[in-house]
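Appendix B, example 12.
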Amino acid sequence: GEVRVALKWLTNAIHNNSVDSDCFEGLIAYYGKPKASEHVIKILNLMDAAGVQPRHRDFYMTTFKALSASGARSDHIIEWLCKMHDQEHFFDLRSCNEVMSTLIEHGDVDTARSVLENVAQKLFNPDQVTCQIMLSGLEKSSPEKAVSFLLNMLLSLGVAPNVAHYNSGLRACSRFGDTRTVRGLIGLMTESLLEPNASTFEIAIRTHAYHGDLKGAKEWLEAAQEAGFGNSRIILNAMLEVQLSTAASNEEIMGEGEEAHSQRRKRAAAYRALEWVKELHGSSSSALGLWPLDANGTSTLIRSLLEANLESAALECFEAFLSDMKEATSRTIQGGEGEQWTREIQSAEWLVVQQESQPVYEAFIWHYSASEDEKKVSEWLDKALSSRVELQSRWFAMAIMVHIKKANIQTARNRFRQMHELGVKRDACVYDLMASIGLGTSMAQQQQQQQQI
């Protein structure tokens, strides 16, 4: 109803010659949603017919975002890019890069490629940022497209690939387990006198490890260490996963059955990985003896320990991670003294905990929700609440799901209310769970009746 009123006033303004681009911008932004491209085009055509020229660059960016989000055809987007080019002070390569980035965010890689070839390449000289944006979209589609673009950048666009470009090509290959092309691309990097960085080695390690080539993964680990990245945390995270994979594949255990064999294998792998991390933790090379893994690596280790029923070890890792993270923060703040300085250090420590420890808390909440341990799920969600870490809707969803399964309906409702009180967004998953409470109660009543019988 309000949109119809807005269109009515817009029509009156056009008839009275009292209209500018600002009058159209709000409606264009409103229709910037899936399957509404014809409405966006209709408003733009109405503006064209009224002879209205955009007054500022922001209008064009609003238009491109709306066209991208609404799924407009590439020819419409290119048409408006060319119109924007007529207003030379509004249009530059940065604007073109922003349009391509917006298209890729909405999953329209083909239109972004069309903008690159029909606008950026013809009207400007694409730069390294342009190519990185294009590669970031191609790396999610297929390795052939990403690698082909990468290898032809210099010839077709006049842009020499840098390390970040090569890493995008490597990620595309990694998604499809193409270890051969990963080796080839890194070889080309070195031939081009580009030095691989920590991310390059991490991609190579994970690609080989995830696809069963543990020997290849270890070779890249050694190469990373020789290149001086042995203490990089993303490399250490990758090394941890190789440790877990290697231990699990090498361990020969006689089990009473398939399930027992699997559990004992997990336990052996987790224990060996833990010993490796402890050895790093105590070594002088590990950031002055601090915990060697970041939050994601620590989360991986904790999940493996919990799956192996090594709960006390998982808790020990959690405490070491938090303690050393605070210690590392306080070491970076030096030179002050007194009560005010102490408060500033404590504030900085809490800020780091809030920003960095989400994956670690999630590891516990996810594990206990999967095993339907109602008491432990509540315990770890409450720990997250008291730690002031940024709360996630999915954590509450996990807890609510377990409460409903255990027929503890009132506790589920309390958690739902708690989300509102704490300002945690309640997404569709949470509402679906709450909507299932009637069914959950009915099932619980049926179970009680069956027990009585």
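The chain has 24 helices and no strands. Confidence is low (pLDDT under 50) at residues 252-256, 284-288.
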